[in-house]
């Protein structure tokens, strides 16, 4: 999985006054969990844009004055009106410990059902996976080449030896629904097929 580097500074004071001062200065207060002790730090808000405002999944390399930690974004708080980032929690990664996170689904291939006029619906845009950090995928590929009209692609078709998918087997990732246009065309074709037969009976 691709990594984004965040450069910040450790925080000595974590009170409300210090936190407000950080935000007023354009910085975001953060906490890194998962290690022996939580690590409190801050970084400029603009440093998080490529991490937060994207549909892609990334790990994070947090650099704090000579110290470096690999992590994933665990939780984020934003202002309900301005959407300004108020606080971010990270969780530290270790090479020998599995981690759980959500990654996006990426469709590939061409569906025969769609070519016939069906509507492709992506039911699950992100899937929760559990894996060692080195095996975390950038995305999960869902090949729709076998989807006929009315077919569904279940999560069981996306299994991998490198990670576990934490979803029930009946989870639908995407499906090809019969569109109104396709249904109308089928009905008209059926009527047209019946017409010659009716004439022959007469």
TrEMBL record:
List GO BP terms, alphabetically.
translation
An example Gene Ontology molecular-function term: 5S rRNA binding
Q: Which SUPFAM superfamilies match?
A: Ribosomal protein L25-like (SSF50715)
Q: Please name the InterPro entries in this protein's record.
A: Rbsml_bL25/Gln-tRNA_synth_N, Ribosomal_bL25/Gln-tRNA_synth, Ribosomal_bL25_b-dom, Ribosomal_bL25_C, Ribosomal_bL25_long, Ribosomal_L25_dom, Ribosomal_uL5_bac-type
Q: Which UniProt keywords apply?
A: Ribonucleoprotein, Ribosomal protein, RNA-binding, rRNA-binding
- Gene3D superfamilies, alphabetized: Ribosomal protein L25, beta domain (2.170.120.20), Ribosomal Protein L25, Chain P (2.40.240.10)
Say yes or no: keyword Oxidoreductase present.
no
Q: Does the keyword Ribosomal protein apply?
A: yes
Residue ranges of every copy of the Large ribosomal subunit protein bL25 beta domain listed in the record: 98-178
Q: What does this protein do?
A: This is one of the proteins that binds to the 5S RNA in the ribosome where it forms part of the central protuberance.
HAMAP family, per this entry? Ribosomal_bL25_CTC (MF_01334)
Name of the protein this chain belongs to: Large ribosomal subunit protein bL25
Give the source species.
Answer: Flavobacterium cellulosilyticum
């Amino acid at each position: 999985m691709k990594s984004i580097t965040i450069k910040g500074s450790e925080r000595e004071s974590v009170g409300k006054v210090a936190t407000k001062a950080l935000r007023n200065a354009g910085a975001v207060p953060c906490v890194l969990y998962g290690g022996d002790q939580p690590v409190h730090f801050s970084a400029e808000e603009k440093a998080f844009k490529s991490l937060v405002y994207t549909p892609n999944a990334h790990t994070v390399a947090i650099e704090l004055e000579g110290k470096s930690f690999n992590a994933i974004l665990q939780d984020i708080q934003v202002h309900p009106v301005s959407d300004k980032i108020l606080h971010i929690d990270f969780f530290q990664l270790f090479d020998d410990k599995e981690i759980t996170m959500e990654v996006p689904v990426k469709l590939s291939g061409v569906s025969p059902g769609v070519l016939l006029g069906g509507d492709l619906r992506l039911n699950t845009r992100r899937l929760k996976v559990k894996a060692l950090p080195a095996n975390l995928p950038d995305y999960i590929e869902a090949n729709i080449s076998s989807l006929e009209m009315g077919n569904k692609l279940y999560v069981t078709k996306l299994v991998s030896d490198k990670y576990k998918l934490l979803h029930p087997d009946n989870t639908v990732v995407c499906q090809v629904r019969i569109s109104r246009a396709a249904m109308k065309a089928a009905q008209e074709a059926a009527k047209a097929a019946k017409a010659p037969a009716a004439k022959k009976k007469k």
